[in-house]
Amino acid sequence: MLIYPSGIDLSSSALCHLSGLLAARRLERGTRWRRLSAGRQALLVLAHLRCGHTYAQLAAGFGVGTTTAYRYVTEAVEILSALAPDLTTVVASATGKAFVILDGTLLPIDRIAADRPYYSGKHHRHGMNIQVLADPFGRLLWASPALPGAVHDIRAARAHGIIDALTSATIPCWADKAYRGAGGTVRVPYWGRWETLSAGQQAHNRSHARIRALGEQAVATLKNWRLLRKLRCSTTRITDLVKAVLTLQLRPTA
């Protein structure tokens, strides 16, 4: 295998944050020696999550075995996912905001046609359904646990308790037509063919679309972590990977 220097489009604060967590875990467990330092392990994990490098690529680049690379990543993901904010915490912190934006996205996975529960008819591919909350500026606030791609957005939002949580906190929420009938504080565009809508309804839908477009920025922020663009792991691990990415994305920068 050929090896070449590469870069990761992240600031050093991400590396410092993760290496600090890994060093604390090693101290807690009384680890005496490892092949890589906490800083190098953190760099390996970030290369996996941000760039999508495989375990074989990581092993060659960092001079460790493939199994060791897997263990390093698994350990870091476990630490990070445990620190991800839950929905209750996020909703409580969002009470002071004018509104939030709810959107669903599909994380593609490598599954065959026989795996129907993971096939999204909307996207015409296999994947996992993730619900995303963003603030009025399009900044990522929260990402949900993963559900099979065949689950519709409104069903996923109800399963995660998103609609009930936002309604209880009286937080207005903008969402697309996939959430029609959600009720509560969820606001969706007028339904119908464009030419059948009144001028006022068309103007409302245009305004609504401009607001919802900000939510796409949060989805793009999530998918900037290139591992999530094409997942080749067990579907049972995807929720922890999403939580780990969320923790890194929301890390303190000061």
Walk me through the structure.
The chain is an alpha/beta fold. It has 2 domains: 1-82 and 234-254; 87-223, no CATH class. It contains 9 helices and 7 strands, in the order H-H-H-H-H-E-E-E-E-E-H-H-E-E-H-H. It has helices at 12-29, 38-51, 55-62, 66-82, 87-93, 153-159, 162-168, 199-223, 238-249, and strands at 100-108, 119-120, 125-134, 140-143, 147-148, 173-174, 186-187. Strands 1, 2, 3, 4, 5, 6 and 7 form a 7-stranded mixed beta sheet that branches. Helix 3 (55-62) packs across helix 4 (66-82) and helix 4 (66-82) packs across helix 9 (238-249).
Strands, helices and their partners?
Blueprint: H1 12-29, H2 38-51, H3 55-62, H4 66-82, H5 87-93, E1 100-108, E2 119-120, E3 125-134, E4 140-143, E5 147-148, H6 153-159, H7 162-168, E6 173-174, E7 186-187, H8 199-223, H9 238-249
Helix pairs in contact: 1-2, 1-4, 2-4, 3-4, 4-9
Would you kindly provide a brief summary of this structure?
This protein has 254 residues and is an alpha/beta fold.
Q: What coarse outline follows from CA principal-axis ratios?
A: elongated
- Please give the number of β-strands: 7
Following the backbone from N to C, one meets helices and strands in this order, namely HHHHHEEEEEHHEEHH
Give the CA-CA distance, first to last residue. Answer: 39 Å
- How would you state the average pLDDT, rounded? 92
Q: How many domains?
A: 2
> In which range does the helix fraction lie?
40-55%
Write down the Rg: 20 Å
Major sheet: size, sense and barrel closure? 7 strands, mixed
Tally of helical runs? 9
The proportion of residues in beta strands is 5-15%
Stretches where pLDDT falls below 50 for ≥5 residues? none
